[in-house]
Amino acid sequence: MAPSAGDARSFGNEPVVIRLTLPALADAEAPYVARLTRRLDTTDAADALLVSQDDEGATFVGRDGTVAIDGANIDELDGDVVIVDPVAGRAERILRRSSAHNTLLVTERCDQLCIMCSQPPKKTHVDRFALLEEACLLAEPGSLIGVSGGEPTLYKEQLLGLLERVLGERPDLEFHVLTNGQFFEPDDVPRLRDRRYAGVSWGIPIYAPDPELHDRIVGKEGAFARLENTMADLMLAGARVELRTVLVSDNVGELPDLARYVVKRLRFVEAWSIMQLERIGFARNRWASLFVDHGRDFGPVGAALDVALLHGVRAQLFNFPRCTVPEPWRHLARASISDWKRRYAEACAPCAERDLCSGFFEWHPIEHAEAGVMPL
Ligand code: SF4
Asked: Which of 84, 297, 316, 344 could be a cystine partner for 348, CB 3.0 to 4.6 Å?
């Protein structure tokens, strides 16, 4: 989940983190969805029109009344789709027009308890599927929208309903759903064969090739066996799957074996993403024991990539700054960190590959970032 707002912190002289939730004063009584605009000629009932702005923020009027939003101006907000919550006094920027990294948080509940979880689960759930669906229908043409949690498929019926209705009306959109794969059933296979699911890819974590270690990392007995069944169901459904493996000290030595498992059993996947750890959530306090500095020893990661690529599995690296990856594998490092939580080190300033580079998470240890980069 996105933190409600990023504070103005940076490694060097970098811009502030983008704020996803802003204070707002609205005269409606219940939460509603609106698209903020400065266009006066719009006829779309979902649009809320700019009526004034000053140094504090901007005020809009739409079918649900007036909303005054603080902390951003119309240049930042124009075209954003927001959920306005009058009682909480906030406007949540659900789909930022200028961003390729919009993600819907559909629940904060989860059935697993991963040792490195970046978003530790909560017991409570607030059902906002109807509002999120309304927001998706207002998305910019051709958008890719992320879905995450918690575990989205705890609410599988609501989730699949949202995907099907939105993609039925907006076949130009695509979704990428992060799920632990614990709740798919053989009965779902015919449903998932529907042509609308060509617009959905499922990002599914797998942490080790053996059940005991995977189960220990995700904190759930039997999770690996359940995941294997899900993979069989998704393969039968022709689903688009991206495997995800977060690098931690517990599994780094197993990566080459995991690669062999993937090429043998899961070769149908679209991609396998090996991801560097994010120092937030549970990983913040466990950083010293979990973090693997691939800049010091790339061996197991490189060996895993070689196995995958040799067998035609499209392996890639997420959250690996490019200059920290040895040259033979550098082209696999993607600019994966979302814009609202991405930073670069001061030492990155002269780098020619910055636009291709993930940079660092905002919460990555600054000393490590500054010491480890070598501008390309
Ligand atoms: S110097 Fe900075 S921008 Fe360049 S590759 Fe390294 S981390 Fe990325």
From this structure: 344
Establish whether residue 370 lines the binding site of ligand 1, counting it when its CB lies within 6 angstroms of any ligand atom. Answer: no
Predicted confidence (pLDDT) per residue in 343-371, tens digit: 999 999 999 999 999 999 999 998 898 88
Check pocket membership of 351 for ligand 1, CB cut-off 6 A.
Answer: yes
Q: How many CB atoms lie within 10 A of CB 332?
A: 21
CA distances from 88 to 22, 30, 36 (A): 11, 10, 19
273/58 Cα distance (integer angstroms): 40
Query: Over the stretch 139-163, which tens digit does the pLDDT of each residue have?
Result: 999 999 999 999 999 999 999 999 9
**Beta partners for residue 138, in sequence order:** none
Lookup: tokens for 68: 């005054």
Residue 317 CB less than 6 A away from ligand 1: no
Cβ of 131 less than 6 Å from ligand 1: no
> Are 26 and 70 within 8 A, CB to CB?
no
The Å distance, Cα 344 to ligand 1 centre, comes to 7
Listed residue (158, 28, 15) closest to 91, CA to CA: 28
- Residue type present at position 43: T
| Number of residues in the chain | 376
Q: Which two tokens stand for residue 278?
A: 């994010």
Ligand 1 centroid distance, CA of 369 (Å): 10
pTM for the full predicted model: 0.92
The full DSSP string for 36-84 is: EE--TT---TTEEEEEEE-SSEEEEEETTEEEEEES--HHHHTT-EEEE
